[in-house]
Structures are given as C-alpha cells and as structure tokens.
C-alpha cells in the first residue's frame, strides 16, 4: 500500500544521502531488502571487521616462515626466530579469504549483474581470490614447504580495492604516466649517450695504473650504465670521478655536465610535469566526487518527492519539510552538519522545499569544519578577574616560551661541559636542580592557564593538550627520580638501580623538555603554516600512504622470493675476494641472507629511498646481473615517481593554505579544518540540472515517478 511505498522512499532517501556524504556511487539496488543489506554492509561494525581482516592478512607476512619475530636482524646477536607450525597461518588466511568471499558476494549482489560486468575492480577481486585459494591449496599439499607463494604478492590488492580514494588516486597516477614517460625516456636517452661517451673517454690503455676508472666503473656496457645511473642519484659522487680526476682534472667536466643536465634539469623538469599533470587529474577526481555528492542529494530529493502526501504540482517537484526531518533523524552523519541542516529547516518559513532549496541545505557538507572553543569562566571577584586577565594574556604564553628556551640553553651548556667526562666523573647535581626548577615552573604555568581559561577551554587547544601532557609526564618522571635516588645534591652521580639508571632517567626527562619546546610553533605564523600543511597531508592523504604501503609490501615479498640464499654470512670462504667485506657486511646486517625477513626488506627499501643501499646492490655479481632490474624498478617507482608525486601534492597543499592565509584573518577562538575535497572547492564546477537528471534516468535500479 501507500504506507509501504512511503517507507521504501524514506529508506531510499536515507541511503542516497549517506552515499552523498561518503562520495559513494548510487548505482546499487534500491529495494527494501537490498537497502537493509547495503546499510548493514556499510555500517561501522562491518567495515571495521573488513579493515581488521585486511590488516591481519597483510601482517601474516611478518610471522610466516621466514619469520621476522626477532629484535635485531643481525645474525651475530639474533636468537632463532619462532616459525609457526604448518596450518596455523594458513587457517587464519582461510578465515580472511572467507570474509573476502562474503565481501565480494555482497558487493556483486548490491550492484546487480549488469553493473558487475562493467566493474573491473570486482572482476579482478574474484580473480585474485581464485588464484589465492588455489595457491593456498598447493601450499597445504606441499606441507607449507613450497618456496614460492604467489598469494603473498597479491595480498596488497585487498587493501587497494577497499578504498575508493586509493582507487581514484591510482587512476590519477595511471593517467599521469604518459607525460612522465616522456621525461623518463629523455632521461634514458641522456643516460645512454653519456654511457657511450664514458666508454669512449675511459677506454682501456696499455698502462694498467692509469686504467682505474675503466676497471672499477666503465669496464663494459652494463657496468658503465650502472655507474652513471647511480651517479644520477648522487650516491657514488664523487667516488666515481676520483680515478679519472687524479689522472687529469679536465675529466671532471664530463661528470659535472652529466650531473647538471640529469639532476638539475631533467629531474626537476619531471617534478614540474608531475605537479602540473597530476594536479589536473586529482582535480578531475575531486570534481567527480562532487558530482557523486550532488547526484546522491538529488536522488534523495526525487524519491522524497514521490511520497503520497506530497502535493502534486504541475510546475515543479517539491519535498515536505516534515519528510526531510524524518529522514535526517535516521541518517548517519556528522552531528555538526545534522544540527546545522535542522536549524536551517526550522528557520525556513515554507512547508515545501524545491530542488534548489533542498540542494542548498546540504551544502553544509561542503563547508569547512569549524571548531569553536568554549568560553572562559566568569569570576565575580575583582582579584580573580585580574588574575584571569594576566595569565590568559598572550604575553604570559610568550614568557613561557622564553623560559622553555632558557631551559634548552641550560641543558645544552651542561651537555657541552660533560661531553668529554667519563660516566664516573659526572656530577648531575646542576642538571637535576635546573630540571626540577623548570618542571615546577611548567606545572605552575599549566595550573595558572587552567585557572584563567577554565579546564574545557584549556583542553580545546591542541597546543595546550600537548603542553599539558608533556608537563604531566615530566612531573611523573621527576617524582620517580626523587623516589629512587633522592633529591639532587653535590656529588649526585648515576647509579644503576631498577630498570633505568639515573642518567637514563635524566636523559629521558631532557629529551621531553627539548620536545616540549615545539610549543612555540603556534606563535610563529610561517612555521605554523608549514606544520599545519604537513599535518593536513598526514590526515587527508591517507590514500597515498596506502598505495606506498602496497608498493613497499609487493617489492619486499618479491625480494624475499628472488634473493633467498643469494648472499652468505661472513666467514664463508666461497666468495672471499670477489667483493669487498663492507659490501657483504652491509647486506648481512640488513639480512640479505639465506632467510630474508619482511622487516629487513622494508628497512632495506627505506635505505634504497635515499639510494645508499642501491649503490651496493646494483653492483652485485654474486646474485645475477638481472637483479639490477629489480632495484632500478624500485628506484624509479619510489624515488623518481612517488617522491615527485608527494612533492607535487605538498606544493599544492601549501600554495592553497598560503592563498587562504591571505584571504582569511586568524581568529583565536575558531579553528578551520580542511579536507582534500575542500582544497579544490573554489575551482570546482557545480553540475547542471540536466546532467544530474540525465544520470538519474540512467540508474539501473531506480525508476523515477516524475
């Protein structure tokens, strides 16, 4: 009947609004049963279970054989790692696969059969699950002793497919690759030409003493190419030119030209192209998100306008305020936005809302999140009012910064004076006394600020929370020091008692005091701008961190499988004389051994980020010359492409904040919080009425009545 239809329209509107809030597609089933499953699937509990499952299956690599459960990677000091018995990790993996099977089944059902064949991610999801389950069966057949596990490399896909923002980011990166490829090709031409010049310039001669450059760096084409590629990263600069420079100073011109053209021009040109192109593609992605939000809101309007109690108008569709209020009570959304929309509805004088008015109400979702600080307490006493004015004044905060600076300087003086003293010769009386004085001042400052501002207002400022937390920790450490060692006195020397020695406790207190000096950042506008930019990147660009994690994980697993048993520990005489001990030791410490570990490989890849590890690995002949392809691919993806992408987004975020700083005055009681979508809000184009309605009429499961 009419009541059942009205309930369906209400539920559809609720789901469409929630889709708009989360920038989700509305192309899913909209019958009553499917809507219930849809809301259940996107509930916090289900999404938390799915996220936990992805975390667990990715973390299995750290405990699977070869296990990474050791404190150190150095085999000289490492205890035998615990390796789980066969079937333990496989059972956990099977449970994860069952969750993923349920996940892909629900997604496929909700979007429908026709939409399923258009969704490449879902088809890839099913293919990955089939391959993973087949590999899991093979693993059990070999009693977990197989050397290659294909499913381990495929695990990062589960993280990718679960994040819509990561998919958009990956699509943007993929669209930027043609432009990046042109510069990378130019870089390859530059490298090839200079490689040929180097082989001609440093050719072998009759004098073996003068052939050091040829012997070490330019003996053949692969070695020459490798040497110049590493020089492009500046990792072997100036070592690569020293033999030739010792022979003739003029040879330095060759290396200077190569470095200037490669590093200063081509690499920076690559950064500029990535910034220009990727910003455009990211803008398109954000524009698409805006369209999804507007489409979801318009879809909610259309289904609500189909309610039976809505008066039929030949002119235009409309939605009753009561129906919208009923929907808002059930929608899961930010309380700030919900309250703002309800306030606007109560202030509205009309009973019916047009499409434009309905859309305008939900523009509250696009606005900056504003955090208003609680008011300060009102004291009746004249003396307390003066106290509140004095200790709530910015100058009192400046005084605290000066005291913190004095504390840092005093610590530096003591450290310089005690730098050359033996542990038994140190007298920590002065350091303990000044620490005690300054910590008491910090405690007094915190209490006076709470008195002036009130506890709620004090805690509403992140800088105060940071300041107060460190003050409490410092106070606890100081009390613990006094309880164990007594009050500072002449001849107060370190003495091991309990878990920490006195010097360790004092050093920990001093580190926290140095860390506390960061409180000056909010008082320095330009420094605060830089810090807030970095914090926004951490909060808003999680998709980039996720893709970077995927790259690290895939390369780490691939490296474990490719180079297992490639390098032997020190003491094995089989390869003595073939490579310098420093090389073997470098690989040994990082655990490039018979049993590679996940943590060690991630650590080695972090070193490769700065190309220190790459300098050695590219020259390895113990493994295979083809191993260079693996490390060059890693360098191109991580250092060349990914670092430049991060620089491009950092510049975009910083420029945006700089422009807004010029437009908006800083208000002491208001904090504005931005998201990635809001970064581009000023340049986004609103979709037209025709575009929205055309897209709604193409909905595979929604039949509009009007």
Automatic annotation (TrEMBL):
Membrane topology field: Multi-pass membrane protein
The Ion transport domain, residue ranges: 53-278, 394-654
GO cellular component: late endosome membrane; lysosomal membrane; monoatomic ion channel complex
One MF annotation (Gene Ontology) recorded for this entry: ligand-gated sodium channel activity
Keywords: Calcium, Calcium channel, Calcium transport, Endosome, Glycoprotein, Ion channel, Ion transport, Lysosome, Membrane, Repeat, Transmembrane, Transmembrane helix, Transport, Voltage-gated channel
Entries under Pfam families matching the protein: Ion_trans (PF00520)
Primary residence: membrane
A Gene Ontology BP annotation from the UniProt entry: endocytosis involved in viral entry into host cell
Subcellular location: Late endosome membrane; Lysosome membrane
Enzymatic reactions: Na(+)(in) = Na(+)(out); Ca(2+)(in) = Ca(2+)(out)
Regions that span the bilayer: 45-63, 122-143, 180-202, 253-275, 395-417, 429-448, 469-488, 508-531, 543-563, 629-651
InterPro entries according to UniProt: Ion_trans_dom, TPC2, Volt_channel_dom_sf
Coiled coil residues, start to end: none
UniProt xrefs under SUPFAM superfamilies: Voltage-gated potassium channels
Family: Belongs to the calcium channel alpha-1 subunit (TC 1.A.1.11) family. Two pore calcium channel subfamily.
UniProt protein name: Two pore channel protein 2
Organism whose genome encodes this protein: Cinclus mexicanus
Taxonomic lineage of the native organism: Eukaryota, Metazoa, Chordata, Craniata, Vertebrata
Gene: Tpcn2_1
């Amino acid at each position: 009947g009419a009541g059942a239809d009205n309930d369906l329209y209400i539920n559809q509107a609720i789901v469409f609004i929630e889709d708009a809030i989360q920038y989700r597609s509305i192309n899913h089933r909209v019958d009553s049963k499917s809507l219930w499953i849809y809301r259940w699937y996107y509930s916090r509990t289900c999404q938390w279970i799915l996220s936990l499952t992805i975390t667990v299956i990715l973390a299995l690599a750290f405990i699977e054989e070869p296990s990474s459960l050791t404190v150190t990677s150095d085999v000289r000091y490492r205890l035998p790692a615990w390796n789980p018995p066969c079937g333990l990790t496989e059972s956990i993996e099977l449970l994860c696969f069952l969750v993923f099977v349920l996940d892909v089944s629900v997604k496929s059902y909700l979007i429908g059969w026709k939409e399923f064949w258009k969704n490449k991610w879902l088809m890839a999801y099913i293919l990955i699950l089939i391959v993973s389950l087949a590999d899991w069966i093979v693993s059990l057949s070999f009693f977990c002793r197989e050397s290659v596990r294909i499913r381990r490399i495929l695990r990062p896909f589960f993280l990718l497919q679960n994040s819509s923002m990561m998919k958009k980011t990956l699509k943007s990166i993929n669209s930027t690759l043609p432009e990046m490829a042109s510069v990378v090709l130019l870089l390859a031409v530059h490298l090839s030409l200079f490689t040929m010049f180097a082989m001609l310039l440093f050719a072998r001669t009759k004098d073996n003493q003068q052939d050091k450059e040829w012997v070490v760096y330019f003996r053949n084409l692969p070695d020459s190419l490798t040497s110049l590629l590493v020089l492009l990263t500046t990792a072997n600069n100036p070592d690569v030119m020293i033999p030739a420079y010792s022979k003739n100073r003029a040879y330095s011109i060759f290396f200077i030209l190569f470095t200037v053209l490669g590093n200063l021009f081509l690499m920076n040109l690559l950064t500029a192209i990535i910034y220009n192109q990727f910003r455009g593609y990211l803008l398109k992605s954000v524009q698409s998100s805006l369209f999804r939000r507007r489409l979801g809101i318009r879809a909610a309007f259309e289904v609500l306008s189909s309610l039976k109690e809505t008066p039929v108008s030949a002119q235009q569709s409309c939605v009753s305020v009561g129906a919208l209020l009923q929907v808002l009570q059930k929608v899961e959304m930010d309380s700030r936005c919900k309250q703002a929309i309800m306030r606007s509805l109560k202030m509205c004088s009309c009973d019916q809302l047009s499409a434009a008015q309905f859309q305008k109400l939900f523009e509250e979702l696009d606005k900056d999140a504003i955090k208003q600080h609680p008011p300060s307490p009102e004291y009746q006493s004249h003396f307390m009012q003066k106290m509140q004015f004095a200790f709530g004044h910015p100058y009192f905060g400046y005084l605290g910064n000066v005291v913190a600076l004095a504390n840092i300087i005093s610590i530096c003086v003591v450290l310089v004076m005690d730098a050359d003293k033996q542990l038994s010769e140190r007298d920590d009386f002065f350091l303990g006394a000044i620490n005690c004085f300054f910590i008491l001042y910090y405690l007094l400052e915190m209490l006076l600020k709470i008195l002036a501002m009130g506890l709620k207002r004090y805690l509403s400022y992140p800088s105060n929370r940071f300041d107060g937390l460190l003050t409490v920790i410092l106070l606890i450490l100081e009390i613990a020091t006094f309880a164990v060692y007594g009050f500072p006195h002449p001849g107060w020397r370190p003495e091991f008692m309990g878990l920490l020695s006195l010097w360790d406790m004092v050093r920990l207190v001093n580190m926290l005091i140095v860390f506390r000096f960061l409180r000056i950042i909010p008082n320095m506008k330009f420094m605060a701008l830089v810090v807030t930019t970095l914090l926004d990147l951490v909060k808003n660009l999680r998709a980039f961190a996720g893709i970077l994690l995927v790259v690290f994980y895939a390369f780490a697993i691939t490296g474990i499988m490719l180079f297992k048993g490639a390098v032997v520990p020190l003491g094995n005489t089989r390869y003595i004389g073939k490579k310098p001990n420093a090389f073997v030791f470098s690989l040994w410490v990082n655990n490039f051994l018979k049993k590679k570990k996940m943590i060690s490989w991630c650590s080695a890849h972090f070193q490769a980020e700065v190309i220190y590890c790459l300098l050695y690995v590219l020259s390895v002949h113990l493994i295979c010359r083809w191993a260079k392809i693996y490390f060059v691919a890693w360098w191109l993806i991580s250092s060349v492409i990914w670092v430049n992408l991060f620089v491009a987004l950092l510049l975009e975020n910083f420029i945006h904040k700089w422009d807004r700083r010029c437009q908006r005055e800083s208000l002491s009681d208001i904090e504005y919080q931005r998201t990635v979508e809001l970064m581009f809000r000023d340049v986004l184009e609103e979709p037209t009425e025709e575009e929205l309605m055309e897209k709604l009429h193409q909905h595979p499961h929604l039949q509009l009545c009007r």
